[in-house]
Specification:
Layout (H helix, E strand, L loop, with lengths): L8 E3 L5 H12 L5 E5 L12 E4 L8 H5 L4 E4 L9 H13 L4 E7 L9 H14 L4 E7 L4 H5 L1 H7 L1 E4 L11 H14 L3 E6 L7 H12 L4 E4 L2 H10 L4 H16 L8 H6 L6 H10 L1
Parallel strand pairs: 1-2, 1-4, 2-3, 4-5, 5-6, 6-8, 7-9
Helix pairs in contact: 1-7, 3-4, 8-12, 9-10
């Protein structure tokens, strides 16, 4: 395995949680030439030992200077779901023009084109552009964040119900810290042109998650499948725009079909450790 810790490593989205965690992991693993790229470099003034640069996917003219001299680049997918595709395509174009040798992109498990399921659609077409690049690339197909379940564990135990629209489908949810560690490892070691699934250790249904919370929390929790239309209506009623409601409801559509049940080896391979399980994280959260 080649060690690229002496290469110039770029990280976009550097001010976000995953970006910051990637940079911390890179530094811990000996990287010394880190370019941290964000829309507003003032937001990362607290990160020592990096070169902060301005770069905005929605302003392609900022990207040439942001990517200048970068040899390996992590493109963290933008947060503006349904609006981010043009900017992500522009970022890949700019990276190719800048001569970046290897691109790493944070995608999603089993992306597919769909006019209303914006998360999967954004990733599908970004990957399509990635595959056409001349250099090396690694698409890290990250499963859904497990963090949300832990954040809401106490509320879920109090409510006693998890509402969903995924049937008996399963998803191999993964924690953001494991996603970040895998991304850092890919920056440091990945070569060639490859898709890599990044997941947790288990593929869990909502019924599995409800049973786990019941057992660890000592209170009954039931998973209730409300169906797709009711889920959409509930999301819109809670204040989400129709675009975002359709996008997020698309997760459970994908889960129902089995698309997110893929258990990958990305964490073990690039982070050098087993991914954190939901049981271990919930146990820790409930104790703390």
């Amino acid at each position: 395995m080649t060690d690229f810790s002496n290469s110039v490593l770029g990280v976009t989205g550097a001010s976000g949680y995953v970006g910051r965690a990637v940079i911390a992991e890179l530094k811990a693993r000996g990287a010394s030439k880190i370019v941290a790229i964000t829309r507003d470099p003032a937001r990362i003034a607290d990160i020592a030992g990096v070169e902060a640069r301005a770069g905005d996917f929605t302003k392609p003219d900022t990207l040439a200077s942001a990517f200048d001299g970068v040899e390996r680049l992590l493109l963290i997918s933008a947060s503006d779901v349904g609006q981010r595709l043009p900017g992500q395509l522009a970022a890949i174009d700019a990276a190719e023009r800048a001569g970046v040798g290897h691109l790493i992109y944070t995608s999603i498990t089993s992306p597919y084109p769909h006019p209303r399921h914006a998360v999967q659609n954004d990733h599908f077409w970004t990957e399509a552009r990635l595959f056409a690049t001349k250099g090396g690339w690694t698409s890290l197909r990250d499963n859904i964040y497990a963090d949300f379940i832990v954040w809401e564990a106490a509320k879920t135990l109090e409510a006693g119900k998890i509402f969903h629209a995924a049937g008996d489908g399963r998803r191999a949810i993964v924690f953001r810290d494991d996603i970040a560690a895998a991304a850092a490892g890919a920056l440091l070691t990945a070569e060639g042109r490859e898709l890599v699934d990044v997941s947790g250790p288990d593929a869990l249904s909502y019924a599995d998650i409800a049973a786990l919370l019941s057992r660890l929390g000592g209170r009954p929790v039931t998973a209730v499948d409300v169906g797709h239309e009711a889920q959409l209506k509930g999301m819109i009623g809670a204040g989400l725009s129709p675009l975002l409601a359709e996008a997020f409801a698309g997760f459970d559509v994908a889960v129902r079909t089995g698309a997110l049940a893929v258990i990958g080896n990305g964490v073990e391979r690039f982070a050098g450790r087993a991914p954190l399980s939901l049981e271990a994280a919930v146990t820790r959260a409930l104790k703390g």
